[in-house]
Amino acid sequence: MKKLLITAAILTATSYTAHAADAIMHHEIMPVAFENNHSWTGGYLGFETGYQNARFKERFDGQYHMRHKSDGLLGGIYGGYNFEFWNNMILGVDANLTYNGARQNNAYSVFLNPNATRDINHESKLEWSAALRARLGFAMDRWMPYIAGGVATARIKNSIYDANYNYQSDRNNMTGWTAGAGVDYALASNTTLRLEYRHTDYGRKTFAIDNFNYKTKVKTDEFRIGVAYRF
């Protein structure tokens, strides 16, 4: 009887193990799919900062020619919309509004008559700028290098004051062109990092201050870094 019980226990354990092994061997593991492609189609809005080198070229009252450079920081907002095509090409529109810190001061003397001069301090300042550009890029998964170009405008302020602190100024909007290149990187599905170089020529404008005419030409080179939210 004892032997019979032992034999039955062994057969039961062996049968359970076989069924368990059979269940494991016949269980199919479902593959897990991971999405590696990043879509660039959609809108975005972000903040940017950077470094700016501005070059002012001025002609004072048809006689004096002044050239000076100014370095400064910039900061502002940008936004736009991208369209991604089947061949990974990106077409988009991009706009920005930027506060600029570039300014330059110069001191010089003006001959009022053969026996008298007037010492003047002159300041040129780039107050703010904006641009509307088209972008052409190429999608490389989370990387998107691009070139961009379009129209740019800026508010320029010219001011003078003399030894008696008589202060006068004039502001004008200047419009020109801008072109550059950069790269966007998708930190996440809804967040992008941007690094960009931009050259801008705002053209030439005449400023009238204290019965004098200042013809000012402004160009800038900028390096910008920004972070944007995609929607």
TrEMBL record:
Gene3D superfamilies reported in the protein's UniProt record: 2.40.160.20
Locations listed in the record: Cell outer membrane
Source species taxonomy: Bacteria, Pseudomonadati, Pseudomonadota, Alphaproteobacteria, Hyphomicrobiales
InterPro entries assigned: Beta-barrel_OMP, OMP-like, OMP/PagP_B-barrel
Keyword annotations: Cell outer membrane, Membrane, Signal, Transmembrane, Transmembrane beta strand
Source species: Paenochrobactrum glaciei
Similarity remark: Belongs to the Omp25/RopB family.
Domain Outer membrane protein beta-barrel: 22-231
Signal peptide: 1-20
Protein name: Porin family protein
Coiled-coil positions: none
A Pfam family of this chain: OMP_b-brl
Transmembrane segments: none
Keyword Transmembrane: yes
